[in-house]
Amino acid sequence: SLAIPESDAAIISDSAADWIDTDNAPAPNGAEDDSYQGRPMPYRTAGRLIGDVSEIRAVRGMTPQFYERLRPWLCALPVSQLSPININTLRADQAPLLAMTAPTVIPVDRARALIAGRPALGWAKVEDALRGFGGGAGAGTGGEGEGSPAGQLQVRSRWFLLTQTVSVDSALLEEQALIDVGLNPPRVAFRTWGDRFSR
What we know:
This protein is an alpha+beta fold and 199 residues long. The chain contains six helices and five strands; from the N terminus they run αααβαααββββ. The strands form two sheets. A three-stranded antiparallel beta sheet has the order 3-4-5, with no helix packed on it. Strands 1-2 form a two-stranded parallel sheet. A hairpin with a 2-residue loop joins strand 3 and strand 4 (171-180).
């Protein structure tokens, strides 16, 4: 558990949705421009997809402590679909990502066991991986559509994040590039420069 109280999670969730939508009507626990413009350093919601995970720090309800807990579980992609989860690249400590797609069928301990028993070359199809979970986990194959959490499971990755550090004299500079290999040839979707402490 990430130990974030449900009331705080509701505020962060609704405020994040308001952050990316284009209207100015706040969700029940959310926040639109008015909420941020009254702050000592006023700003506005983005009205677009989150470009970098660090941007979530500006969302109402997000504290430095919550951000530190959530950061390893967050990603920002330039598409509006749910983030894909490649079951062939999951580590054992990432089992909760698999479990969240069908929590009543795939508990975290069984997700961990599935990852530990993954074939050396991975699974060819999501269905092969989920066969042992019966019909309830079949939703994980995308049967409910890409818009459902269960439809997030995949066996190939489209997005890769390249992180490289450049040292010049005593300065360290970090570059991150999000690469879309779904295009032919693959292309850099975006690139950021900074240091590891700014993320």
